[in-house]
Write a structure and sequence with these properties.
Length: 53
Amino acid sequence: MSQEKRCDYNTCKEIATTKGHVWTRDKEFIEVNACDEHSKLSGFFPEPKEEDK
């Protein structure tokens, strides 16, 4: 990630290292930023890296 952002998960204060998407309770697929810990959760879908596209 080019700009330093905070993790979007609840009260997490860590620096986000991965951009991706999650499903909400309302069945919406939204974009989020996640730290290393939260990017490993089963409901997180990371965006493909530039070299993988």
